[in-house]
Amino acid sequence: MSGERLIYLPLGGAGEIGMNAYVYGYGRPGHERLIVVDLGVTFPDMDTSPGVDLIMADVAWLAERRDRIEAVFVTHAHEDHVGAVGLLWDRLRAPIHARRFTASIAARKLEENGAPTSGLHVVEPWPQTVEAGPFRVGFLPLSHSIPESAGLVIDSPAGRVLHTGDYKIDLTPVVGEPFDSALWEKASQGGVKALVCDSTNVFSLNPGRSEATLAPEIEGLFRDATGMVVATTFASNVARVKTLADAAVAAGRSVCLLGRAMRRMVETAQETGLLTDFPSTISPEEAADLPRQNVCLLVTGSQGERRAASAQLAQQTYLGLKLSEGDTFLFSSKIIPGNERGVIKVMNQLSEKGVTVIYEETGRYHVSGHANRPDLMAMHRIVQPQMLIPMHGEHRHLSEHVRLGAESGLTGIVATNGMMIDLTGDRPQVAEYIDAGRTYLDGSVFIGAMDGVIRDRIRMSLNGHVMVTLILDEKDEPLGDVWCEVMGLPETGRSKAPLVDVLEEDLSQFVGRAKRGTLRDEEGLDKELRRIARQTAQNEIGKKPEVTVVVSRLS
Amino acid sequence: MSGERLIYLPLGGAGEIGMNAYVYGYGRPGHERLIVVDLGVTFPDMDTSPGVDLIMADVAWLAERRDRIEAVFVTHAHEDHVGAVGLLWDRLRAPIHARRFTASIAARKLEENGAPTSGLHVVEPWPQTVEAGPFRVGFLPLSHSIPESAGLVIDSPAGRVLHTGDYKIDLTPVVGEPFDSALWEKASQGGVKALVCDSTNVFSLNPGRSEATLAPEIEGLFRDATGMVVATTFASNVARVKTLADAAVAAGRSVCLLGRAMRRMVETAQETGLLTDFPSTISPEEAADLPRQNVCLLVTGSQGERRAASAQLAQQTYLGLKLSEGDTFLFSSKIIPGNERGVIKVMNQLSEKGVTVIYEETGRYHVSGHANRPDLMAMHRIVQPQMLIPMHGEHRHLSEHVRLGAESGLTGIVATNGMMIDLTGDRPQVAEYIDAGRTYLDGSVFIGAMDGVIRDRIRMSLNGHVMVTLILDEKDEPLGDVWCEVMGLPETGRSKAPLVDVLEEDLSQFVGRAKRGTLRDEEGLDKELRRIARQTAQNEIGKKPEVTVVVSRLS
Questions:
Q1: Cα dist. A183→A144, A180, A190, A242, B135 in Å?
Q2: Is the pLDDT of residue A294 over 70?
Q3: Is residue B453, in this structure, part of any structural domain at all?
Q4: pTM score, two decimals?
Q5: Looking at chain B, which residue has its C-alpha nearest residue A335?
Q6: Which residue numbers delimit the Metallo-beta-lactamase domain (chains A, B) (predicted)?
Q7: Is the pLDDT of residue A484 over 90?
């Protein structure tokens, strides 16, 4: 066995929260057999990725080694863990293993992308395991904010790794399995080489609260409300959806689910047998006909997404339902950083309708799905690993998690995307740096984050765009004047004349005076026209736009 | 006097936090003499205003009535209250009144915009007053997070209005005047018609904490830190800058100010006599030469601004100073909603350098400058106005503030930008709706938010841009093929051929087959070329770009 090694390589999710993609390998350096844990997505924003549909880890390194990939394991069905299995299927083509609920969501992702589902396998919890080359992998149930979340027991010739996935310590999670310390202790017996552990809430100092603590608060709110109540949360948080639905029924209200994701998740959870006693629901038409105080809408759009049910209801009549004075809207969720503007917009639109908006940052109506600092420490104590590798966090989370581990004597390392870590020895060691990056799904095309496409979009949105066209005849003499079009720029500037006219005049003047040699030099002419257009714009409107020059040469 | 009325008209700051601009008027309807309170700015973002430099209220309504404006009063020197006095000077040309510190900041704004400072007047606190047509206005000192903040006592023939401006109730504000209940009680004697009141923190349930509570916490942190300490806050929060500087000195550290705004604010506060015992500071060069544990940098950029000192220090060596393992960086500030991404980016860059980042959302190292709910109630009790008009808040804040007032029997109204309220009678009544909007400073040009310029920029950033050029000869026959350029779009799509080639082929094919009549019809041809370009792009890359068509017709 000498010369073989066990490696860990995060490609996504380490140094950020989102688009999780972790690789483990075992074998001779450069010949390791590989397994992949999770293939998730993250979401674009106008600051860094305008127009992009979805973001995922760049898997070029994996795709080049496709013949060495034994399998993909998906810990749970959140988008940042399962969202890219369909999109990346074609590049990796490895069998996918997951628990039943996760597999049913993964199947839909594969189908949506025209990928076969024949390579998708449902796995029962550990001690059942899947053999994947030198690895033997089991799913260890955990509490989180979606059913059938699991950590992974990854056995290799170099020892056992416990990969937590996302988790919290919840003994009464409403839906799904309570956290089972005994099970995790059992999996830790005989020694764990590395604990690869969720870091999201390392800055949250208090112990996490159970999902079950919310029911009385929410029921009270629904009972005291006079008009219609609407509540929003992540659809995938099936336990919360159940808590909300039960509270509604207890408060004498019928439940109506709005938003495709909300209906789908409840259906999937019912089909997979995870949600057996969900109250019967009514249609939007039925909801519209009932007295307002007898209705509770459970809706998508807790992050202010523009096309989700929350935003629709905040703006207009939606599926025959209209909110008004006296209604109550509960955000049973927290705002993910970056989504504040969208959520606040929805809140204000609701406020304009006279709706009472409830959003308590203190967590009265929401609990997190991730382990807080004391719950991370509990996991460290249970597993007592040889080394701690924080994942699922920005750099500040990973680095704080290493510090936290060090307080109880654990050896840790901050491993961010692209850092290949050798776990074979006593301490984690950086083996290699891999080019890790992001791939964007843009319309139907995959583009690299660094391809320049998005950079150009951002530049146009900051600076506007001027198009300059000029026709030169067979003798390289101008045929007519220079023609300009602008987009995203003010009509007039300093001289009060139309910007387009001023641009055309300055450019035509230059062309009129230019020597034959200048006009013949394709590259030089383009450059000069661009320079003048930018300079003229700077004088007129105080900004230098992007410029596209088209010189048509008749021949 | 019958037939005359007292009106209140917010043009900015009511229905949003930022770009404050309030109008009061007294006289016969349509002939009221006017005063303006505050002329502030707000800041652009990539989601709604890419490329824009500053945002302010649209003052078209005021500019059309310039001859009726008696004066402008500026309550304090925050950008959202004073930031537009220079930019809008030319359109309003009214005398400006402010207290000394505010006036010195306003003077700089005027100078920067080439406006005269001769119309700027320094006013001493109430009971001194300024006569402005039918109004008599006094500045009533208040505690806030910048020196010499003031509310306004606005006397009119129809009664007294108290306009709070921004305030908190702080009896030990470190710099500036403590909140003086007796003074406000005195100003309220004889009855107050309307209290126009800050609403920012209406959702903060606990009483506000004093600036003075921070000193021991910050001093402790600075003392325990081993390396260099860096602290950031709003430069205009002179009290906080003083608290930080004093704590540094107490912890045996020399203070270095970084960032133009930071140095300027301290200078201005010293020049106006408001800051007399600020510790002496050292230059960046001196700071670099001292042992790290003897240095404290006070820096700009608490909101993650890209070019500010914080972001510079997080990325690189800045003015000879380089942060590293063992240093501590304190955010003595809160993140303004919308700025999360930028701040978090800076935090992670610092974390990558091994710097310990301290940001406590609980407020251990930061207190707000605005009145919390109990402090709003205290103001209601002191003033006991006939009516309550909440301002300085989004719709949800204003509406919650009206609800809060109603709990203690106050008559209120949610008045958002553009709603002219008649205060003359017993109850506030909507008199008229004015077109209120936003004006953007874009480079050196003012554009309207609804002009379409920004909409085009956003569209280009979401969809990319295709430029189509075609030359038609004197007989309307195509001279050469169609030529395309693209910006912000992927190079290749479904067919693997360059997108530009596919576009040119489809467009040339259409032009080749087109009848003479089609090619002659200028508008129709443009439209058809655009349609085909969008359809081809949709097939190839799954998105429909913006298209600019240039058909050159030789004649």
A1: 16, 5, 14, 26, 77
A2: yes
A3: no
A4: 0.95
A5: B337
A6: 18-218
A7: yes
